[in-house]
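Please complete every field before forwarding. Incomplete forms are returned to the sender.

SECTION A: IDENTIFIERS
Entry label: holo-206
Bound molecule: magnesium ion
Molecule representation: SMILES string

SECTION B: INPUTS
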Amino acid sequence: MKLIKKGAEADIYLASWNGQTSILKIRKKKEYRIDSLDQRIRTLRTIREARLISESKSFGITTPIVYFVDERKCMIYLQLIHGKLVKDLPPKKIITISTEIGKLIGTLHKNGIMHGDLTTSNFILSKNRLVILDFGLAQKTDKIDDYAIDLRLFKEVLNSAHVQIMEDAWSSFVNGYRIMLGTHVTEKVVSQVSIIESRGRYANVI
Ligand SMILES: Nc1ncnc2c1ncn2[C@@H]1O[C@H](COP(=O)(O)OP(=O)(O)O)[C@@H](O)[C@H]1O
Ligand SMILES: [Mg+2]
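SECTION C: PREDICTED COMPLEX
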């Protein structure tokens, strides 16, 4: 088993599942939490991630196949997706792919799921298909405010990691989102993003 990424919440390994190479995501124990609570949180997130990955598949979102879930050990075996993280694509490509990201997120929201961690490290471009990863913080919700939190995070990521293409990538994302959710809902969510942003600015002042 080879460690390929150490995250804040989980470690990602290249592992073998039934003889084929796969990804193993293990949620680590947090020493600062009370043991029983820690076990509960990790188990819950593991189950939730596996469930929401599968549910998203049911309405056409491309996500890794879940091979196996070990609730007690907080492990998920996932299909290994070959390709490049969107974060590492050339800037021009990120602008065009942002429309696809917008469509994907629009589809998730349309079906009552927020992703919760919309960074460009959570998308892999694989053979011209865009695959979405990491449902560890995803949840079922019908609140405009939650959808706006998704969009706001994506905008922030563009602002910090892809600042030279921020404006173009953002409008490309919103166009994709609009295709799935229509003008009315899109305007509501985007204006909620502005409200959250202005709250943030206010908080910085005081
Ligand atoms: N199914 C997968 N196929 C290929 N790479 C993956 C897969 N799942 C995770 N990764 C890689 O591991 C990284 C972290 O995985 P992720 O599920 O996002 O965990 P974290 O919660 O730590 O962000 C991803 O950015 C990606 O590079
Ligand atoms: Mg991630």
